[in-house]
Design brief:
Length: about 110
């Protein structure tokens, strides 16, 4: 077997693995989790004021900011990291969605 055959075999194996992961992610449970995570990440990506406010809350809770990872279809690791990044900020997202966010920005309760 030559080097070029090994490279081709390695690429083909990787592509087959990616296609299997893609099939698994289309199962109802995983698909719903992935879609919900993608919705959260995309929503904050498009709304910079929301994202700045979320970063303030993250800094308050974690003493640092955490980014959301967007998913790329041909890279299964990004799909995992997308869900992981949303789960890492789950408490902050709950706080962000609650009525208590006014406490952090020094506003008055409405």
């Amino acid at each position: 077997m030559t080097i070029s055959n090994n490279v081709y075999s390695s690429l083909a194996t990787r592509m087959a693995f990616q296609l299997r992961i893609k099939d698994i992610l289309h199962l109802p449970y995983f698909f719903n989790v992935l879609q919900q995570s993608q919705l959260v990440a995309k929503s904050f990506r498009k709304a910079l004021l929301w994202l700045a406010h979320l970063w303030d809350i993250q800094t308050y809770f974690y003493n640092r900011q955490q980014s959301f990872i967007l998913s790329v279809i041909m890279c299964w690791g990004t799909q995992f990291h997308l869900v992981e990044s949303v789960l890492k900020s789950k408490d902050v997202l709950k706080w962000y969605g609650s009525d208590q966010t006014w406490l952090l920005i020094g506003g008055s309760e409405s």
